[in-house]
């Protein structure tokens, strides 16, 4: 009895950035063969540095027959993967259609793993090792891209918090100064000598 093992040979990683307008949707596609794997990781943010709110999008993957294989709603980041049940064009979409919020910046990476039969004599070659090294390097680049988006989002949150603390401190100083002036004025009136004629 012959056994075959599924190995991944090539992982094609590409990083993309897309701006979703309010009530907008962006769809992309990949041509896959049966048993190929499609993995997508994404992160949602805002390009406005004054905006500290964490936004989310809807995400789904459709098969060539129009069947929804994965559907996620209300996510600000995620990692999804499918194994292609048949050959064809697989579509994945990001949607901001339900809300009229600001433009959303979606950064995503596509990791494609190609199905290889272990009995194939080409699977134990130098080309395989080079492609595997390339895949690992691209995985590191994809992770760095993800961390850059997370850092930008967290920096925006920290800057917004710092701004609020600054303005609250200014307000407190003004209240203390006004209270001091009032107390001086009130005490001055209290100790004034009024002469009766």
TrEMBL record:
GO terms for cellular component: COPII-coated ER to Golgi transport vesicle; endoplasmic reticulum; membrane. SMART domains: EMP24_GP25L. GO terms for biological process: endoplasmic reticulum to Golgi vesicle-mediated transport; protein retention in ER lumen; vesicle organization. It is a single-pass membrane protein; Single-pass type I membrane protein. InterPro entries: Emp24-like (IPR015720), GOLD_dom (IPR009038), GOLD_dom_sf (IPR036598). The keyword Acyltransferase does not apply. SUPFAM superfamilies: Supernatant protein factor (SPF), C-terminal domain. The chain crosses the membrane at residues 167-187. Keywords: Membrane, Signal, Transmembrane, Transmembrane helix. Residues 1-15 form the signal peptide. Residues 25-112 form the GOLD domain. It is found in: Endomembrane system; Membrane. Its main location: membrane. Belongs to the EMP24/GP25L family. This is GOLD domain-containing protein.
